[in-house]
């Protein structure tokens, strides 16, 4: 049940935490390929969101949807006016802005944008990543049990004008129906701000 | 008595005047009696009085409250003033400090400027001396160049003459060589002739000897002698020629030596020429360098703008010094700019604070004035209140006296008479009021006549006006505040509604975003084609397709079969063969699609099997790793290496054993219940060594772990003894190196 058996993982220390890392070379290669392309998009500032969707093999319904909003803070700080325009445009379209999922976040970000930005040290970034990883690890306490065979996929929400290689194609957004969602911690580097969120399908009998 | 009663009935302030007026007008008591105030009017008056009293008390309270607030505000303002004064003092001290700092910095800056000026002058001096030196160098350089040119021309002339003489000498040498060759050939000829002549002389002498021997004729001898003389003369001539030729040869040899010297001189001159060429190249380079230096000098002169005196050793030092001075100057300017900016900012702050202090002082003064005014008003009100109280008291006294009078004078209709009396009194009061107004009106025109009474009236009026004005003002303010409050409440309500609607919208959008909504106009969702989910999807799709295909094929087969059955039915009906069995062909019953689907399933099952194999392999690997880890832990903690043998036995080898065969073999007890029994050892000697121990711990006490521990201790002690004997110094280290983790407790025993 679930995705992979426990013996497919080994304990590895990363970001100061003991984490289970896969030993399957196929998965490793697959992840490497994905991350290579994501890196290219990130360098071109084209990535908006990274999504990990866990689906039932039997019914193909999306059970969990881990969403990581990527916000290019460097670009935002340098062209705050442009981003404000963008923000207002998105508001007009009735969509959440890229600056955050709600207006208060956007307001705070624009407010803090006027202040001189302090560069984060690697230690601070690592500690933030540690915190979010701890939260992700602890999320087993509230997420429903995956009591059926599951599969997974990684989606990348990019801007419309992003260059797409032949190995990638447009996909379904993998919406979660009857969803409950939990907002996780954020972390930020000197270039990006990542907001994490997990949406999971509530059991029908609940 | 009656006039005194009227006097008591009249209000305290203007009642006296009214009484005076009564006295003046001489109103009789009967008339007064006729005007006795009605009880309702009296009640109204009392009520009015109570209202007035209440208003007065409330006004007083309000005023007291206001005074307290004002006093508090004044105290706060005073505190603020003090704070601001202290802030101003601190800012003043800061300003003074900054001023002193600025002064010191200015002095420093001045000193630096002076030093920079001095250094600039020194640099100018250095530049001047350098320029002079440069001029000297230039002159020397021109001299050297001229000298080199002269030397060069002289040397070239010399070279030319030498080359000419060399060619001449070479020609002479060639001629001499020719002549010497001809002379040598001639000398060789002469030598040959001489040798022939000598041969001939020898021959002639032989002949002469023979002639002498044979004594031939005198003629022959004379002829021979003559010929001999000729030959001797010829030989002498030849010898002279030979000597001359030898002398010539010597001379030519000397000349040849001179040619060699000339050749050497020529090579030396060529070398010199080469050197001169090098010198010329160097001269060119020096000229270029000189031009560069001159350009640099020009630049420096242009830069320093003044003519040029320095005493630096090199331009590099000069440039370094100038650069350091520049950087210092820039740093100082920056510091100065920063200080100036800070000073300006502080000055601005001080000005603002001073302005604030001024405004606050003004506000305090205004408040103080207002407080004073309020206090005076309050005092006036207090006085008015006192008067009103007195009036009330007098009225009470009047009422009391009236009551007593009534009770004494009128026995029966007390209440009616009293009421009637009150009415009369109230009417009287009203009348007096009207009279008072009339008098007030008249007194306005007669200021000079009734100054005292009009003054008191004016005071009363003004008090009343002030009070009413303040009350109306307060009411207006209250009304305005109430309206503003209502307005603000409405606005707050509207904003709250907007906020709730926006919150709901935000929540909705957040939910939509969380579940995966996105704007397809600006964004797109991408997925790698070869993901696990897409692979699974493809497999399922393939399976579905194959099933569909199979289904259609089966449906077709069923239709064919039905058709065949119908044909057979028709055939049976026509041919009437009731017992004949219908033979349906097996061919084509199972369609190819089913076969393909089964093949696909088979492939899938094989893949699943491979996956399972991989998984079991992984499990085995992880189990092996864990087992190794467990065995290592057992080895390091208990001191025994555990080997599980193929026959189900367990072999224990102590880590302190000297040899591999020193082991214990255990086997499981009956029914494999986990109890172990010692069945043998790797070496007989080893068992004999520990037989006593085995008997004691296993046979007597029945504890295999205790036996194993004892054996471990024995082995450790033995090893320690050996080590002590062999290497007492490195004893402990050796044991630690062997296994640091496992024997710390044992080392304690040792």
TrEMBL record, chain A:
<dbReference type="GO" id="GO:0007094">
    <property type="term" value="P:mitotic spindle assembly checkpoint signaling"/>
</dbReference>
<feature type="domain" description="HORMA">
    <location>
        <begin position="1"/>
        <end position="198"/>
    </location>
</feature>
<dbReference type="GO" id="GO:0005654">
    <property type="term" value="C:nucleoplasm"/>
</dbReference>
<dbReference type="InterPro" id="IPR003511">
    <property type="entry name" value="HORMA_dom"/>
</dbReference>
<dbReference type="InterPro" id="IPR045091">
    <property type="entry name" value="Mad2-like"/>
</dbReference>
<dbReference type="GO" id="GO:0005737">
    <property type="term" value="C:cytoplasm"/>
</dbReference>
<keyword id="KW-0132">Cell division</keyword>
<feature type="compositionally biased region" description="Low complexity">
    <location>
        <begin position="100"/>
        <end position="113"/>
    </location>
</feature>
<dbReference type="InterPro" id="IPR036570">
    <property type="entry name" value="HORMA_dom_sf"/>
</dbReference>
<dbReference type="Pfam" id="PF02301">
    <property type="entry name" value="HORMA"/>
</dbReference>
<dbReference type="GO" id="GO:0051301">
    <property type="term" value="P:cell division"/>
</dbReference>
<keyword id="KW-0498">Mitosis</keyword>
<protein>
    <submittedName>
        <fullName>Mitotic spindle checkpoint component mad2</fullName>
    </submittedName>
</protein>
<comment type="similarity">
    <text>Belongs to the MAD2 family.</text>
</comment>
<keyword id="KW-0539">Nucleus</keyword>
<feature type="region of interest" description="Disordered">
    <location>
        <begin position="74"/>
        <end position="125"/>
    </location>
</feature>
<keyword id="KW-0131">Cell cycle</keyword>
<dbReference type="GO" id="GO:0000776">
    <property type="term" value="C:kinetochore"/>
</dbReference>
From TrEMBL, chain B:
<feature type="coiled-coil region">
    <location>
        <begin position="187"/>
        <end position="282"/>
    </location>
</feature>
<feature type="coiled-coil region">
    <location>
        <begin position="343"/>
        <end position="442"/>
    </location>
</feature>
<dbReference type="InterPro" id="IPR008672">
    <property type="entry name" value="Mad1"/>
</dbReference>
<keyword id="KW-0132">Cell division</keyword>
<dbReference type="GO" id="GO:0007094">
    <property type="term" value="P:mitotic spindle assembly checkpoint signaling"/>
</dbReference>
<keyword id="KW-0175">Coiled coil</keyword>
<dbReference type="GO" id="GO:0072686">
    <property type="term" value="C:mitotic spindle"/>
</dbReference>
<dbReference type="GO" id="GO:0051301">
    <property type="term" value="P:cell division"/>
</dbReference>
<dbReference type="Pfam" id="PF05557">
    <property type="entry name" value="MAD"/>
</dbReference>
<dbReference type="GO" id="GO:0000776">
    <property type="term" value="C:kinetochore"/>
</dbReference>
<feature type="coiled-coil region">
    <location>
        <begin position="42"/>
        <end position="94"/>
    </location>
</feature>
<keyword id="KW-0539">Nucleus</keyword>
<dbReference type="GO" id="GO:0051315">
    <property type="term" value="P:attachment of mitotic spindle microtubules to kinetochore"/>
</dbReference>
<feature type="coiled-coil region">
    <location>
        <begin position="471"/>
        <end position="512"/>
    </location>
</feature>
<protein>
    <recommendedName>
        <fullName>Spindle assembly checkpoint component MAD1</fullName>
    </recommendedName>
</protein>
<comment type="similarity">
    <text>Belongs to the MAD1 family.</text>
</comment>
<keyword id="KW-0131">Cell cycle</keyword>
<keyword id="KW-0498">Mitosis</keyword>
<feature type="coiled-coil region">
    <location>
        <begin position="120"/>
        <end position="147"/>
    </location>
</feature>
<dbReference type="GO" id="GO:0005635">
    <property type="term" value="C:nuclear envelope"/>
</dbReference>
């Amino acid at each position: 049940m679930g995705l992979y058996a426990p013996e497919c993982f080994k304990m590895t220390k990363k970001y100061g935490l003991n984490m289970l890392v896969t030993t399957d070379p196929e998965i490793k290669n697959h992840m490497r390929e994905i991350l290579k392309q994501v890196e290219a998009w990130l360098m071109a500032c084209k990535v908006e969101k990274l999504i990990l969707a866990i689906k039932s093999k039997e019914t193909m319904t999306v059970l969990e949807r881990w969403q990581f909003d990527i916000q290019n803070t460097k670009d935002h700080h340098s062209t705050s006016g442009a981003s404000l325009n963008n923000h207002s445009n998105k508001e007009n379209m009735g969509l959440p802005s890229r600056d955050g999922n709600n207006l208060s976040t956007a307001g705070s970000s624009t407010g803090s944008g006027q202040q001189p930005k302090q560069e984060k040290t690697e230690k601070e970034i690592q500690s933030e990543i540690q915190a979010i990883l701890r939260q992700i690890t602890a999320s087993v306490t509230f997420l429903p049990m995956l009591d059926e065979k599951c599969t997974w996929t990684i989606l990348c929400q990019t801007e419309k004008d992003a260059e797409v290689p032949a190995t990638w194609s447009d996909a379904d957004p993998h919406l979660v129906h009857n969803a409950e969602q939990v907002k996780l911690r954020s972390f930020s580097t000197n270039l990006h701000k990542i907001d994490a969120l997990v949406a999971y399908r509530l059991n029908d009998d609940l | 008595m009656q006039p005194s009663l009227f006097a008591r009935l009249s209000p305290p302030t203007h009642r006296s005047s009214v009484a005076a007026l009564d006295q003046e007008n001489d109103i009789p008591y009967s008339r007064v009696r006729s005007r006795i105030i009605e009880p309702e009017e009296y009640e109204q008056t009392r009520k009015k009085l109570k209202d007035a009293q209440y208003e007065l008390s409330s006004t007083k309270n309000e005023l007291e409250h206001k005074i307290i607030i004002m006093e508090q505000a004044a105290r706060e303002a005073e505190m603020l003033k003090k704070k601001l004064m202290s802030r101003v003092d601190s800012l003043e001290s800061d300003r003074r400090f900054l001023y002193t700092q600025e002064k010191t910095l200015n002095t420093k800056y001045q000193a630096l400027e002076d030093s920079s000026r001095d250094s600039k002058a020194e640099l100018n001096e250095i530049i001047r001396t350098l320029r002079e030196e440069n001029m000297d160098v230039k002159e020397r350089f021109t001299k050297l160049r001229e000298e080199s040119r002269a030397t060069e021309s002289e040397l070239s002339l010399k070279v030319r003459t030498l080359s000419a003489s060399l060619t001449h000498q070479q020609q002479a040498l060639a001629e001499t060589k020719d002549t010497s060759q001809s002379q040598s050939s001639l000398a060789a000829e002469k030598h040959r002739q001489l040798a022939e002549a000598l041969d001939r002389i020898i021959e002639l002498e032989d002949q002469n000897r023979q002639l002498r021997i044979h004594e031939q004729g005198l003629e022959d001898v004379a002829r021979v002698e003559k010929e001999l003389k000729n030959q001797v003369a010829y030989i002498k001539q030849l010898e002279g020629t030979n000597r001359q030729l030898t002398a010539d040869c010597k001379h030519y040899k000397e000349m040849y030596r001179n040619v060699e010297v000339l050749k050497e001189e020529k090579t030396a001159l060529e070398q010199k020429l080469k050197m001169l060429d090098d010198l010329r190249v160097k001269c060119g380079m020096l000229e270029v360098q000189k031009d560069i230096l001159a350009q640099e000098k020009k630049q420096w002169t242009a830069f320093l703008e003044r003519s040029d005196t320095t005493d630096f050793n090199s331009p590099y030092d000069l440039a370094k010094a100038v650069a350091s001075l520049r950087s210092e100057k820039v740093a100082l300017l920056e510091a100065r700019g920063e200080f100036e900016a800070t000073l300006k900012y502080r000055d601005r702050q001080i000005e603002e604070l001073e302005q604030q202090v001024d405004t606050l002082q003004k506000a305090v003064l205004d408040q103080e004035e207002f407080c004073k005014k309020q206090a005076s008003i309050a005092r006036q009100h207090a006085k008015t209140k006192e008067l009103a109280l007195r009036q009330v008291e007098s009225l009470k006294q009047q009422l009391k006296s009236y009551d007593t009078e009534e009770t004494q004078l009128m026995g029966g209709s007390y209440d009616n008479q009293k009421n009637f009396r009150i009415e009369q009194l109230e009417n009287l009061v009203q009348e007096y009021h009207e009279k008072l107004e009339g008098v007030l009106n008249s007194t306005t025109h007669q200021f000079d006549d009734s100054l005292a009474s009009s003054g008191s009236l004016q005071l009363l009026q003004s008090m009343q006006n002030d009070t009413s004005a303040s009350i109306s003002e307060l009411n207006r303010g209250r009304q305005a505040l109430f309206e503003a409050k209502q307005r603000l409440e409405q606005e707050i309500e509207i904003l709250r509604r907007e906020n709730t609607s926006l919150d709901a919208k935000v929540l909705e959008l957040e939910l939509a975003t969380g579940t995966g909504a996105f704007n397809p106009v600006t964004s797109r969702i991408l997925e790698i084609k070869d993901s696990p989910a897409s692979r699974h999807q493809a497999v399922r799709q393939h399976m579905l397709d194959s099933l569909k295909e199979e289904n259609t094929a089966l449906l077709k087969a069923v239709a064919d079969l039905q058709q065949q059955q119908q044909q057979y039915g028709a055939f049976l009906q026509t041919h009437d063969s009731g017992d004949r069995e219908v033979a349906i062909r097996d061919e084509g019953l199972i369609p190819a699609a089913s076969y393909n689907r089964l093949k696909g399933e088979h492939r899938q099952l094989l893949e699943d099997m491979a996956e399972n194999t991989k998984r079991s392999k992984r499990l085995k690997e992880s189990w092996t790793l864990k087992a190794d880890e467990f065995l290592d832990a057992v080895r390091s903690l208990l001191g025994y290496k555990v080997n599980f043998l193929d026959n189900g036995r367990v072999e224990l080898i102590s880590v302190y054993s000297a040899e591999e065969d020193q082991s214990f073999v255990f086997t499981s007890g009956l029914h494999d219940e986990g109890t172990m029994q010692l069945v043998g050892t790797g070496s007989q000697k080893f068992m004999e060594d520990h037989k006593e121990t085995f008997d004691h711990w296993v046979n007597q006490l029945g504890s295999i772990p205790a036996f194993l521990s004892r054996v471990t201790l024995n082995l450790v002690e033995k090893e320690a003894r050996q080590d002590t004997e062999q290497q007492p110094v490195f004893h402990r280290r050796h044991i630690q190196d062997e296994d640091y983790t496992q024997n710390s407790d044992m080392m304690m025993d040792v």
